[in-house]
Prior knowledge:
- With 141 residues, this protein is an alpha+beta fold.
- 30% of the residues lie in helices and 39% in strands.
- It has one domain (2-138): Gcn5-related N-acetyltransferase (GNAT) (Aminopeptidase).
- It has a seven-stranded mixed beta sheet.
- Strand 6 (118-127) and strand 7 (130-138) form a beta hairpin.
- It is globular and about 40 Å long.
Amino acid sequence: MIRVATRSDIPSIVEIENLSFDAPWSSSVFRSYAYYPGFIVLKSEGVILGYAVLVVIKRAAHLASIATHPKYRRMGVATALLEGCIILAKENSYPLIRLEVREKNNDAQKFYLSNGFEMKGVIPNYYPDDNAIIMELDLEC
């Protein structure tokens, strides 16, 4: 079940975040997004399997973060969360979803490409140790 994240979800989300990223967001960042319509979780049998944060920047949806607990990867969790984000963006008439992904993260790039995203450019030194690839999904096609 995909639903909006609540404060009680934060400990599980922070655990997923810490297991997924070298420079994880703090729990205070996630607390600030609690109950925000674009902060969603996928929960099954009482366990949060993954989360996504979709925010609006200049009338475009920005996928700020998405992660799946390592035990549940390659089971469709990220795809379901991304589909949830696409639905949210379309419901709000956003023309596209934009994101940045590490240049070194080939698996994430392949995931987004397989879901219709296109590479749009590079931001040098976006991350302390890597460039970012800008990717977009056009929702007006």
